[in-house]
Design a protein that fits this description.
The protein has helices at residues 2-23, 224-230, 284-287, 306-319, and strands spanning 26-28, 40-42, 59-62, 71-74, 85-87, 91-93, 99-101, 108-115, 118-127, 136-146, 149-155, 168-172, 175-177, 186-188, 194-198, 204-209, 213-220, 242-249, 288-289. The chain is α+β, with helices and mostly antiparallel strands. InterPro entries: Root_cap.
């Protein structure tokens, strides 16, 4: 009887410890460019873990860049109705919270984000039914340049959609790479400056670029219902598999540009007309690149040269230096009249 009581006590203590650990689970903010750097944010009881084997379950999410430094429960997939999203044909929500459409052109690439140390391009696919003045377009691929690396992901073309097939393809520095088709399976670059994690077995991932960005991505088709509502007139040999994307950025410079990137500028005036059902923004010629991994658009500011990056960075720091608070503004620079 004594042994049973002892075992019962041990089991109770272990269970209590596990409960407390689960309750106290949280996220440590390790990115020095976020507002909650070095803080530990506790997860809610309803979602004590940051991971979930079932992609339909909510997980603990802590935005280390929010001044409140609190966590919340959310799904691990793009939210097409939140800032930083690029979904549908393509509808963007800028860093300023304003909704706009950028149609681009089918089978061409455009700069989505261009900063001194990060370039993100998107490849648009689509078609133009007879009688239409422009292409219907969707984002089919993303290309990233950072830290002297080139990374891309794309939705593979398919005539008909099958949920049991993974339509994502990846490449890193010119080499194809594969991520095991298992929920939560992860791939790291050699220097661990990029991470790919599957949110489900197929067609859904989170890409993390260290200290720069987190991107949630789904691959989806143009459905028959979409086709009926919008009169896309999708051909029988292509369901236009494309990406739904939500970006979260860290440490963007005030000079950031690109279709989406420029909406994160502190002084950006969005040309999208308020009150319009589909506010379309043009400027294709300013953002067009020659390929998915090129930085040759008219508004691109990405520099792969460390010397050039340091120069751009110093210019940005000098331009944003506040000399209104005494002899030094706290950046180790003495302001002189």
């Amino acid at each position: 009887m004594e042994i049973s009581k002892t075992l019962l006590l041990v089991i109770s203590l272990v269970a209590a410890t596990c409960f407390l650990q689960a309750k106290a689970a949280g996220v440590y903010c390790s990115n020095p460019y976020t507002r909650c750097y070095r803080k530990y944010i506790t997860c809610p009881e309803e979602c004590p873990s940051t991971t979930a084997m079932n992609s339909k379950n909510k997980v603990c999410y802590a935005d280390c860049d929010r001044p409140t430094c609190k966590s919340q429960c959310r799904m691990r997939k793009p939210n097409c109705n939140r800032p930083g999203s690029a979904c549908y044909d393509p509808r963007f929500i800028g860093g300023d919270g304003i909704v706009f459409y950028f149609h681009g052109k089918s089978n061409e690439e455009f700069s989505l984000v261009s900063d001194s140390d990060l370039q993100i391009n998107g490849r648009f696919i689509g078609h133009r039914p007879a009688g239409r003045a422009r292409d219907f377009t969707w984002i089919q691929a993303l290309g990233f340049l950072f830290n002297s690396h080139k990374f891309s992901l794309e939705a593979a073309k398919t005539a008909s959609w099958d949920n049991e097939i993974d339509h994502l393809k990846f490449s890193f520095d010119g080499q194809d790479l594969s991520v095991p088709e298992e929920t939560l399976s992860t791939w790291y670059s050699p220097n661990k400056d990029i991470k790919i994690e599957r949110m489900s077995q197929r067609n859904s991932v989170i890409v993390t670029i260290k200290d720069k960005a987190e991107i949630m991505i789904n691959v989806v088709p143009v459905t028959k219902e979409d086709d009926r509502i919008h009169s896309y007139k999708v051909p029988s040999d292509d369901c236009f598999a494309h990406l739904e994307v939500q970006f979260r950025f860290f440490n963007l410079s005030p000079k950031v540009d690109g279709i989406l990137g420029r909406t994160y500028k502190p002084d950006f005036q969005n040309p999208a007309k308020p009150g319009v059902a589909m506010p379309v923004v043009g400027g294709e010629d300013n953002f067009k690149t020659s390929s998915l991994l090129s930085t040759d658009c008219k508004t691109c500011i990405f520099s792969d040269s460390q010397a050039e990056f340091d120069l751009v960075k110093s210019e940005i720091e000098y331009a944003t230096l506040d000399c209104t608070r005494g002899a030094s503004s706290g950046q180790g620079i003495v302001c002189r009249k």
